[in-house]
Queue: 4 jobs
Job 1
Amino acid sequence: MGKRVGMEVSIAAAEAVKQANVDVISAYPITPQTHIVEHLSEIVANGELDAEFFCVESEHSAMSICIGSEATGARSFTCTSAQGLALMAEMTYIASGLRLPILMIVANRTLSAPLSIWNDHSDTMMIRDCGWIQFFVENGQEVYDHVFISYRVGEDRSVLFPTIINMDGFILSHVIEPIELIDQEKVDKFLPPYQPLYRLHPDQPVTMGAFALPAIFAETKKAQEVALRASLPKILEVWKEFGDLTGRYYHPVETYKAEDAETLLVTMGSIGETASVAVDRMREEGRSVGLVKIRLWRPFPFEALKQATLHAKNLVVIDRAVSVGGPGGPVASEVKAAIYGEPLRPTVYNFIAGISGRDVAPFDFIKMVDKAEIEIEEGKKDGYELYGVRE
Amino acid sequence: MIENLNVFAVRTLTQKEYFAPGHRSCQGCAEALAVRLVCKALGRNIIIAAATGCMEIVSSPLPYTSWRVPWFHCAFENTAAVASGIEVGLKVLMRKGRIPKKKIVTIAMAGDGGTADIGLQALSGALERGHDFIYVCTDNEAYMNTGIQRSSSTPFGASTTTSPAGKMKPGQITWKKNMAAIAAAHSIPYVATACPSYPLDLIQKVRKAADIPGAAYIHILSVCPTGWRSAPDQSIKLGRLAVETGTFPLYEVERGKYHLSIDFPKLKPIKEYLRLQGRFRHLTDEMIEEIQDRIQRDYEILRERSKRGF
Ligand SMILES: Cc1ncc(C[n+]2csc(CCOP(=O)(O)OP(=O)(O)O)c2C)c(N)n1
Ligand code: SF4
Ligand SMILES: [Mg+2]
């Protein structure tokens, strides 16, 4: 067992980056990601980590530097939020297209306008289809652990994809939690230095980033798509190995009191912890309610999600982002797509809750479940609501 | 034909090609020539980060490549940042003993659009950070790759597809951005202008840039017959005229000190340069005079600086 220490989650994230022996760090400050960058610059300034650290002139350049350094075979890290992520959006597609296993932590924050620094998932949903492996974590320990897991998976030669760890801004980034640190020796064993398949070097000249005409583009996209889907078994394998090492086992979809539940709440991110409190209360009242939490967002765990949800009657899916003018929240869309082909499937009711950091308390989940159960009973098939909005 | 020019073979230059023949640039493309010379100047121990633009498109249609050196294309506006990443990646990997220590020159290459417009911020950041790399801007004075649209490096009066000469407007109505001066304002150790019509001068400057530790910026005027509406066999001559008329003076700024590479006691009249290019066909005598005055004035300033040294 490693040491258990109380620390701010952003600091824990930075400590993990240090322990992962990252070679290049490049970032631009933005609330609520700032504490990670600040702590990393301290770590490098104090010589605790031998890395090149650049606080650059924009997020676009932060990601571009990581792309360049990763292409030489240097383990590279960046982190951002909201507007910063929007500014690097163009580069995220290129990083995955070029199969560069960069790690980025996104401290999720609302995208402007109106300007808001608070937490929801609108930033990361903007780049949902950028081709990165994407995790949503629930607490500080998961952030810390997934820094090692992400590099280990992403750098595997059967994978070679960049990874995003999504953690809720403020709700996670700024709270102090007990974190169990892993001994450096164990980390080094679990995560050896990166051995790229190809690197930019004159001894073995390669061309990276060629352009594709229509006659060949589709084949390159298909290759990327097949490869990202195929990373799932590797993710499961690494999670298992990590569990054996630390006792903390992770799964693409986590369930809580779900096996026999008629109604299931479906969440993603830190909101799952509050939802579990609500589930306990409803269970105490004798209601048949459980919880399903999605941890792996890309590649989307269709099978695991089906396994966790198909037995239920109602799914109450909580989204933290709006697809304005679209079919509802992005998580609900995915959930519906996952179960659509099943002859017997639960009815989905979609709530958008807690946008821009508005608090979602346990009783809010209870109210949402109440409403969904009643309306589905009355025959509603496409329940969708921005929860708790004053009109 | 280039009049009064003795043809001679350059013995000091490698016969090896690193930017291989067979790429798809237009006939008479001096931008391709500039890129070829930059590579020849440095040999194989280089890594190139290239911006989107003509040189990228003509050289890398998947699954083919013209590059015999490591070459990386990422996007249009971030070449300086990508090159920064390559430079620091190599540095840290060598320091940590994960790749053998040796001198590898990192080069960023972008057009005038990728440099003076959309890439200016990334370039400024990289120059300010002082990465040990060479930034080469191949300036053909417009966005050629996308069909001859104006850039901030397009000269006054030039007609492009987005600054067309019409009844109300005489083509480009702004003056060419002075990128070399902007680069020099970052107090980097080495800035130079060059032109492939003066190959030995260009090669010497590239080598100097590689030898000097820290960031170097080289601005290369690259005649583009397609965009300039000039004859493909006039490209070398046009490059020479650009220099001889003072339109594009060749100089260096070494640790802040200005030095004219070639000084002309008397500049050739600008008309000689303009009349060979369709993009200036519509210019009135008045406008030509205005251009002539401006060139003369700018050249005097440069000459003064070169004499003073700063
Ligand atoms: C962000 C972005 N905006 C616009 C483009 C379209 N684009 C590609 S190359 C180019 C112009 C290139 O001009 P320049 O840098 O001068 O290079 P040249 O082709 O003239 O050598 C443009 C506008 C792009 N690829 N990316
Ligand atoms: S358009 Fe101009 S710069 Fe581009 S390849 Fe043709 S001649 Fe060269
Ligand atoms: Mg151009």
Note: The longest helix of chain A spans residues 82-97.
Job 2
Amino acid sequence: MSTETPSKAEPTIGDYQYGFHDSTDNYTFKSRKGLDHEIVRQISAMKNEPQWMLDFRLKSLDIFFARPMPQWGGDLDQIDFQNIYYYMKASDRQEKSWDDVPEEIRKTYDRLGIPEAEKQYLAGVKAQYESEVVYGSLQEDLARQGVLFTDTDSALRDHPDLFREYFGTIIPSADNKFAALNSAVWSGGSFIYVPPGVHIEFPLQAYFRINSENMGQFERTLIIVDEGASAHYVEGCTAPSWSAESLHSAVVEIVVKRKGRFRYTTIQNWANNVYNLVTKRAMAYGDSLMEWVDGNLGSKITMKYPAIYLMEPGARGETLSIAFANKGQHQDAGAKMVHCAPNTSSRVISKSISKGGGRSSYRGLAKVVKGATNCKTSVVCDALILDSASRSDTYPYIEVEEDDVTIEHEASVSKIAEEQLFYLMSRGLTEAEASAMIVTGFIEPLVKELPMEYAVEMNKLIELQMEGSVG
Amino acid sequence: MATLGIIDLQVSVESKPILKGVNLEIKAGEVHALMGPNGSGKSTLAYALAGHPKYEITGGSIEIDGTDVTGLDANERARLGMFLAFQYPVTIPGVRVADFLRHAVTNRRDPERKEGENLMPMREFRTELKERMTELGMDTEFARRYLNDGFSGGEKKRMEILQMAMLKPKFAILDETDSGLDSDAVKVVSEGVNRLSGPEMGVLIITHHERLLEFNKPQFTHVMLAGRIVETGDASLAAELHANGYATVRERHPEEAAEELTEQEKSLASV
Ligand SMILES: Nc1ncnc2c1ncn2[C@@H]1O[C@H](COP(=O)(O)OP(=O)(O)OP(=O)(O)O)[C@@H](O)[C@H]1O
Ligand SMILES: [Mg+2]
């Protein structure tokens, strides 16, 4: 792809004028640690971005600095923003050797039956995952229908007008501190445009184009589903994403136009050192349907509340979320539904599991603005707590400015029933197997919504989380 | 020959003594009936044999083929061939019958299997499951349903027998498996029991009814009263109890009958 001869010299700061931006060769570039205007300028220059994007980044950085740290949700005080690399080319992540990958992680890959090539990518041993064969033919097929499916950096370059029309409009930089951070230093992510009336039958997976930088720390995804179109996008995978980087802060912006349908499925299993602070929001227009299916495992702290703004009458929003908080983990996850128009409806189903001292919180907002009459919103949260050291909380926020609204909120907290455990054990299952089975059953209503291979992996992962840790 | 030995077994629930020294020996191929008035301790014996953690063994022992299994948990006992068809099977939402059973059957057939190791091949398991379901007159659709979720009383009982048929235990305890079944279903269940009981399996049938015992004629009938087996006879004893109730048994065992009474009084007094 590169049209330039790579420089042999070890690039340093200031070398960006040599134009590394358009290359997938093994250039190395790493910004120095820390965060300031200069770093942001470098990132933008590295990518050879237009002026407006640089301005946007710089403005966002100022907002990030100006905003206080959120004092609710997880404890974020230990994040040292000046001790982080904010930009690294994919090829730089190749420095690890297979022997450096922790035993635990390798064992998990084996148990999940992840193919060798993929394992190496996931563990950061290999930066490139060769999926050109599958990807290539699918790409052609999609391209013929006018679908754009690319990484976000390429989209900015190749589809500047479409990009600029939507970028940052669903989630402005000023939305929250971490959205501002992402806006300042974003890199990678997916860009999808589905033209009017086009139905994509198979799930679009980040896998297909995993060789770009989509799994970066500050990925930025923008998806536009035009009128009457439909698609399903799947991001992440059940294998733990092992990473030396400890801060992940993504932004995902989605627009679903009239009569469109879109589902965004995420399965994430971050390593235990990771702060996963993600802003996800969709705007759903007349008679459209937007669905978030969100599975969160791992990480140190996850704060993630996928939102749906129901903008016009007939729009529907649905969020299904699963959180598993194990030892040392805090999953603060939930959903936001904002009814901005009459005759809109939303549904949230959330299931959480806490174990080994883990903590999971459901934090959700149901909002109905003035004038949005005849809306329906329902929230069901079920929490399963596996031992007395673990914890679960529910924080439902309800803001309603209309009378003519149906609101349902149900929450339940339960323990694994001794009688269920005994029943399964009396059939020859170990205590861990029996608990895993009960937990798997608990989240089954959500797991069955996942694409087949993810569902299988998800169940195996639950088994793994439950193993050798009970009794 | 496989033998289940119950030796002077004493069991407490929440520190309250329920079984006060039960002795019983069941060999493969034998059918035993266990009868006794409500609350005499029959289910307690069943749970204690299966290894329910709430049923604390305070004295005596349980042996399988001469090995003391008193200290083993329910899962280990199941792998050695113990099986309890529950009087009240629990519901486990979200867990499909087939998934659960494949796991259980794999462990039973390979007692050394460790967590996470492969399950028996899907195809082999399915074929077998289908055969057993057909024999028990069950719609194969049940394999895909969540365990006992929304099952009728009779369907739950059949599901217990299906599990028994798949697990092929050495010793099966059927705790009132016949209650709540219509008479056609009792027949199907007893055929299922007969098919297995042969020389391979010993059975302890806990029941208040005659039908199951007609099809599975017991060589031994035991009567439990206030936590002890007070009489053992043959099939005719079961018939006599059905005809006359427990009055004559109580007359023949005034001490236990008295204990039964005092317990009732105690529990009434505490209300
Ligand atoms: N889990 C428990 N908690 C408290 N008491 C119990 C428990 N299980 C059994 N018991 C008590 O032990 C005694 C024996 O009960 P058990 O269920 O063994 O009787 P049973 O012979 O099976 O009666 P039935 O014919 O009604 O099934 C009863 O007094 C009962 O209340
Ligand atoms: Mg009973």
Note: The first helix of chain B runs from residue 42 to 50.
Job 3
Amino acid sequence: MATITLDKVRKVYGGSVEAVKGVSIDIADGEFIVLVGPSGCGKSTLLRMMAGLEEITTGEIKIGDRVVNNVDPADRDIAMVFQNYALYPHMSVYNNLAYGLKNRGMAKDEIDRRVKEAARILEIGDYLERKPRALSGGQRQRVAMGRAIVREPAAFLFDEPLSNLDAKLRVQMRVEIKRLQHSLGTTSVYVTHDQLEAMTLADRLVVLSGGNIEQIGAPIEVYDKPASTFVASFIGSPAMNLLKVKADGNGLALATGTGLKGANVKGRDACTIGIRPEHLEVVSGPGEGEGIHLEASVNVLEPVGAESYLYSSFADGGDEILVRVSSHARHEPGEKLYLRAAPENIHYFDADTGRRID
Amino acid sequence: MKKVQFQSPWLPYLLLLPQLGIVTVFFLWPAAQAIQSSFYLEDPFGFGSTYVGLDNFKDMITSTDYGRVARFTAVFTFFVTVLSLGIALLLAVKADKVLRGASAYKTLLMWVYAVAPPVAGLIGVLLFDQHVGPIVDLFAMFGWKMQIGVNYFDTSFAMIVTAVWKQIPVNFIFFLSGLQGISKSVQEAASIDCRSGFRRFWTVTFPLLAPTGFFLLIINITYAFFDTFGIVDVIVKNEPGNNPVTLVYKVYLDGFRGNDLGGSSAQSVILMAMVFILTIIQFRLIERRVHYT
Ligand SMILES: Nc1ncnc2c1ncn2[C@@H]1O[C@H](COP(=O)(O)OP(=O)(O)OP(=O)(O)O)[C@@H](O)[C@H]1O
Ligand SMILES: [Mg+2]
């Protein structure tokens, strides 16, 4: 168990590609941190620097009280789970788990005890003598997890460990990882590009974009108060509707000219407003209740089971907006919708920088 | 793959005919002849031959000369195989570390492979030339006066070095592609599990490279046995005398220099049997190799 401290960590590849641009994070002991962001945002690079697989260009990484910048990966007291599992193909499952312990000179019966214990927790006891190639993807994933937990390390590092599994197994393993992490209480850093996985697993989310931190916070905080348009569109599914608006005599106007009633621009002449699809309420007529009122027509109706999504557009074209409705609500393509968003559910972002305005 | 159906059932055989012809004329027929003449004593002046049963084989096995050459061939094969595999593996591991340099490395070393064995032999001979050879000069500086073609040990040394020199690139290419075939994340997982790079090599990299290694072992034994004819020939310059030669070279010497066709045929039959066994082992290994990864 340990804290992990990143202080202005930068990574430059080959003298020109700046993959991580000065990232600072304080990870508490036992915390489950998820690094999330689109492909190429530098999350693997950041994780690999913590593991010692990638050199730190500038800045400092501490595990516990120890600066590990120049510490060998094997001496950092971390365990890593890789996306493609990275099991040793020529070793049995038992030896895959035991390998890291043997190399640390642990006594045979202690190794045996730990391997058996991990096998019991992960339900891989029946395969201990098999080679990895004789296992299914899900079983390999468990072995990879087992190899991490037998070490009883100060921290677990996960790099998209579930992305090679099918959807059902992914959900199952996700729950299992969370349960396991809770019962072991080991500090964990988990990398994913899947915002749902990030939301469900994290104690705290770190949203990355282009090598920078966009926002750090508890999942619900990030969801409720996204710090930028980037976070707003990345976290939450379906994504938040973002509309560019200008100040108008009696409220706001969309860039295309359609007037919006009943909201302010917080003293600016232009900004971006964000409304989540679930916060758009279908009302029976124009101008009912306070908040923003919109009129749009339904283009496509997408039922997904528990709910349906209405892809709608304004009378004069322009941005499309997404409305989430109950699957039992009856709507038709071409139908005219009167929509309302309550004032507390409207997010304002700077028109130029995209940062949140409160 | 697309399956093609021939109109006539004979056409495929017709198309195969040239290849079958070549195999028959240049391999099957001489092989059959060799087997046949290994049971006959050929008159050196070409006046007929007498059936002698297994006498040629008995003579061969009991002859001290054959024993000497067989021993040298064994030693030669051992050194060539071990050194060319060992050095190539070392180079491949180094090259694998600096991946960016690898392609330059690869081309550079492939050049040597592109040089045909007799030419490699010639270059080797040049390097070992009594008067202008840089290697001879080099060793002379350390007080070793090499006498290639005269001194048995010096000649063996030159042969082995030249044969190794010629074979390293092939082994290197195979080892390097074998190394690059090992998943990067497996190597990384190992670097988290094991601090000592040396230990990591022997417990993870080497076992994963073993299929390539086995395969190359067979290839190299075959090479040292048979493909070094050109090198031996150029180094001993047709003057075997007391010089070390390999079994294959002795077949040529006895048959075409000594005019002992029967004896030389018996030797070549033994060699054929060895190729046969090596080929079987190799096929077995290739089959097993498929299961890895
Ligand atoms: N070895 C390398 N050499 C040069 N550039 C690299 C190297 N590794 C990564 N990069 C670059 O660094 C940036 C961040 O890469 P990284 O692998 O951290 O992305 P990621 O967030 O993990 O993306 P993904 O979700 O696709 O895995 C990318 O632009 C990538 O091209
Ligand atoms: Mg990645």
Note: The first strand of chain B starts at residue 40 and ends at 42.
Job 4
Amino acid sequence: MAEAIKIRNLTKVYSNFLSKDKVLAVDSLNLDIHEGEIFGFLGPNGAGKTTTIKMLLGLIFPTSGEAEVLGKPAGDIETKRRLSYLPESPYFYEYMTGTEALEFYARLFGMGGAQARKKADELLTQVGLGGAKKKSLREYSKGMLQRIGIAQALVNDPSLLFLDEPTSGLDPIAHMDIRDLILQLREQGKTVFLSSHQLTDVEMVCDRVSIMVAGKLLKMGSLDELLKAGATEVVARKIGKEALRKLRSISHQVDEADKDKIVCLTPNEASQQAVCVIVESRGEIISVTPQRNTLEELFIRTVREAEE
Amino acid sequence: MTILTIARTTFGEAIRRKVLVTFLAVTVALIPISLMFGFFSYRQELTTIKSFYFGMIGIAGLLIALIMGIQLVPIEIERRTIYTIHSKPVNRYEFLLGKFLGALSTLLLSIALMGVAAIIAVTMKTYGDELSRALIPITEPFSNQKLHISEIGRGIAAIFAGLVPTFRQLAPGVVLIYFQLTMVVGLAMFFSTCLGAWVNFFTTSALYCVGSLSQVTDSLIRGENKSLLTKGFAYIIHYLVPQFGNFHVLNPILQPHNVVRDLDKYIAQNVVYAMLVCVMLMAFGIWIFEKKEV
Ligand SMILES: Nc1ncnc2c1ncn2[C@@H]1O[C@H](COP(=O)(O)OP(=O)(O)OP(=O)(O)O)[C@@H](O)[C@H]1O
Ligand SMILES: [Mg+2]
């Protein structure tokens, strides 16, 4: 699979020549993002996510290491025609109206007056701001500005999108719209580099995720890999005493939910055996479910472990 | 194309800023008002009035030039509006040049408005006698003179006819002020890529003052009986700091002894000089800005 982004030993140290303290914001990061995937870039506040994105866009420069974006060194101007960036809490020229702002961004891609205006109108409708396009951005609410941010990230129909907390400040409906938008982008074969604190969203849309803590990448992989727990849940009915004893000996835990029903949690290797025991004793199997951690659990565990 | 888009946006934002608009409106209004309130005695030398207006336009323009040069680029970084711009195919140099051109057009509009006000005011002062005599029946109701429409018409015609010679008199000075201030914008914008706002303000202002003495440094360099050290020092200042002083030449009070023989040539030379200085300042500014983290 082709790589949309290749990051090699990328390191960023923020230093300030007035004070001596230095911040190691990103520490020897290695990461490949495949073309066409939705990549969740997670980490607690101050982990270095925004710093990484800014380096990939050439807004700031790495202290060492290198990065390639769409086959060109990070910051390449021509590549910027094919990518887009939604900054965290984006800022715009407040005196402009919604239409003017998007027209301005369209012009930066070389679109002429009529074309730019048409594009602006289209996008405003798409992000649900059709009714507010003549208002100046000064009068927009936080969520409305966020929508302008999303609209400007779609201006050039990019093949790679960097979205830094795209749903912050959005109401539940808009939130859902963004989730759908991202899924739509995946269907169109676009690559999305998504930094977010909304773990349920990430779980729903991302193909792979990584967790960064204090500049270091601690976890990386597909959601299936990362969230796979070592256990399977078996729910059954009509279990005799003998079978129950056997199940207890091979499971982590057996709960008698009510008189009739039991829920047992077995290690994955033993799940087959548990099923056999139940079937042999003429019990009735209700469900067999491989357990999955939630992303939230994984996130919290990873951050806690790193802190220790 | 991109440069023009940025420039247009910069200009659009500037002329919508209440501070700038108010400041300009007040200054432009003050120009004719200063005449009405007898700022100058009735038959005061025209040269004084000319100098006063040049000074006024120069100082107001200097403020506008300084503020724009100092603020335009850093404010984009501070407001983080630059993120959405530089993540699009916009080169650093295009951004900086766009901002510079935007500032120059705003400055042009400001200076032009003040210049036009000054030209109108001076014309009224110089060629307004006929009209004010015709209007006596209105201004002094108890004089028993009669109002003659034809006299009023002739008075107005005199003023219109006076616009052209007044324009010829004032325009060269105004043009020089504009080009002098383009260098101020360039200097402040260059420093804004590497200095904080206040340091920039003091540095640019100091350089403006030093550069305004370019006639002095020039005579020091030419002077026969000056020490080598003095000459060397004057030489460095004269060629390192933009020669703002050359642009004050047409102000008869600041530069009483200067007589420019060939005015057109003098203006052309200085305009070219100002453009060269701007090009150099922008080249250095771009060089720094390309490496700046935003
Ligand atoms: N311009 C800067 N100068 C100095 N230090 C900075 C600068 N920007 C960020 N940092 C520091 O770098 C580290 C990483 O910051 P970054 O903004 O990349 O975090 P983040 O992962 O995006 O966090 P959040 O989830 O809060 O957005 C933090 O310790 C931050 O204080
Ligand atoms: Mg961030």
Note: Chain A has a mean pLDDT of 92.
